Structures are given as C-alpha cells and as structure tokens.
Amino acid sequence: MNEFKERLKDVENHFLQNDLDLGYRRLIDLILDLGELNFYQEIIHYSDLYYNESSSDELKKEKALEILTALKTVSPPEYKQEEVLISTTQVEKTYNKRKFRLHPITFDIKSREVVGLVGENGNGKTTLLRLICGELKPTDGEINYHFTKAKPYSYELRTKLVYVPQRIDVLYGSLLDNLQFTLTAYGINNKENILLANVMLARLGLWPYKDLQWKQLSSGYKMRFELAKTLLRRPEVLLLDEPLANLDILAQQIILEDLKYLSQSIRNPFGVILSSQQLYEVEKVSTEVLFLEQGKLKLQEDKEELNQNFTIIEIDVINDKEELLTALSNLNLIQLKFNGGSFIAYFDESVSINTIFIEIGKSSLQVKYIRDISKSSRRFFVN
C-alpha cells in the first residue's frame, strides 16, 4: 500500500480510538506532506475548533474524520527515499589550552534517522555538534556532506544544516510575524506564507500563543517556537544541543515524538542529531545512541562495550542490600553494585530478564523501579 495511505489509516485509527492529541498532530503531518493550500486552510479552521474550550471530543473527532475522508481522494505525494546525509571519518578536535581532546569519531546519519548524543557534561557533545555544523574546524579527519555540493563552512551549507544551540537568541514581535518573516526569507510569499506559518504553529502546539510576543513565552515554548521556525526552512539535517533542558517531563516526550514523526516526512525527510541528559527519553525515539566519555565515542550497540556476557538490571527497592541478595540468590548473580540510589545487578547472559522478573515476583521485595539496561547507554553511566 502507498505510504501516504498507510499513514492516513494510522491517523484515522488514532481518532477512532480517541487518541485525539496524537491524531491531531499526525493529521497536520499528512497535510504538510501534501502541501496543498486548501488543506492548509482546512487544518487552520480545524485548529480553531480543536482549541475551542466549548468543542467536545466527539465534535473534534467527527470533524477530523471529515478531513481524513477528503484526504483519501487526493493524489498522494511522492515518497522520497532515505539517503546518507553526513558521514564523519576519524574526526577529532584538540583544545591545547583546555587539555581536552575529542578522539577520532566515525559515524553516518541518514534521512529519517534520529541520533541521540549522550554523556556527562564536558565530554565533547557540543564540540561534536559544532564540528558537524561548521562552527569549528576539525584538527584531523573528514566530514562529508552528501546532500549538497555547497562548500564546508559556507552560508549555503548552513541553510540546510541547522544548528540550534541550548541558548536561543532573543526575538522581537509576535510568533506569527517571526514565522512569516522566516518564510519570506526563504522565498515563500503571498497566501502560502500566512497559511504555512499558521499550520506550523499548530503543529508545534503553539496555536493558543500565536499572537504573543517572544518575551511572554516560557522557556519550553520558546524551544517549540525555535523548532517551528527551523522546520519552515526545510533542513536536511537538524542539530539540537540540549533541546529538552527547560521542558517538563511531558513536554520532553512530546517534543521527542514530534521530532521523530516530523523527520519521517514523506516529501521532506531530514536527519536529527540531538544531545541530551534525558537518556531514557532519547533512547525511545533514537535509531542510534552515541555515548561520549572523556571525548571517546561508544556506540549503543558496540560489541566490545556491550557487556555481552551479562544481563544487567537497574533496580530500586525499599529493602536493604542483604534482602535483595537473598531474593536473587537462586539466579546466577555475578555482581551487585550500589549506584547512588539504585542497585545495578549483573547476571550471566543465560539469565533472561523474564526469569529475573519471575524470581523477584516470588519474593517479598518492595520494588520502586526496575529496568533492563543490558543494551541501554545507561550502562555506560554506571560506576
């Protein structure tokens, strides 16, 4: 089946199952992929209804299904195939005065990929992002940009390779005015300009705030707006430095979901590299996770670093260590560490996570939290 029709079906199911918020965002994705002005107008009218406090969920669902019915009659957009966008080969950076070295790093990023960049502060995450975007020049190695023939460090390259730092520049005027200005700068004028600006505000959850000034927004909504402005430029690669830093937990999850869905665009897919301290949230949406420790790269699936001989769980219990050891005594427990609030238990790889859960379930342990970190980058943070 055509990819557009598959996504239509998924969005329809979201509304039929009363997942209205997700359905609404994914419906806008379909309309952005289609790129037809009459559907831009439809979703703008629907957004007024969606955010109207007097609108019932049943009415929201009914009107959304009407739009989906209309979308089923259009010619679907052509699906753009995945491609390698950037490849780095033994890229490194040395700061003599800071006595810090980013050791040789080699990896690729493709369109529709979200690459998570994790590690403690001061281990080279921002340095790597700045190397890729051209703000810094590598001491050695190569960075190849396959999506353009523009010269490295040129303005032409930066129009499609967008770096969003943690500290966002102050803007003036309303959100809508700023988005319209961005579109004008990239050659989108007249009716499409105002319609597309409104659609993007709706997509990033900014519809109720479109007439507000920048200074009236919270830090979290400023990041959402920066993403809206950036996505209107239709980047090939989006580099984000700690985009979750000022967001609450729910907002973090939504932003990451949005990045994953938006990068999967049928017509305009892009790659994302984002640095973050929110490890588990990033792992949920990432196709690959890169861990930096003292400037050295570890891959999430690195065979040498994967502790292949172990099944590893992180567990937090009300009980003391002796009680936990007793509960796990029937399993092939190799080591039990205390890691600042939780225990890290290492078992032989023959012990499955299901077996561990069953054994814990038979015990009298009062478990507050348990997680399998055998293949998670979390294992790199364990002392």
From TrEMBL:
Residues 86-319 form the ABC transporter domain. The keyword Nucleotide-binding applies. Pfam families: ABC_tran. GO terms for molecular function: ATP binding; ATP hydrolysis activity. The keyword Nucleotide-binding applies. It comes from the Bacteria. Belongs to the ABC transporter superfamily. PANTHER family: ABC TRANSPORTER ATP-BINDING PROTEIN (PTHR42711), ABC TRANSPORTER ATP-BINDING PROTEIN NATA (PTHR42711:SF5). This is ABC-2 type transport system ATP-binding protein.
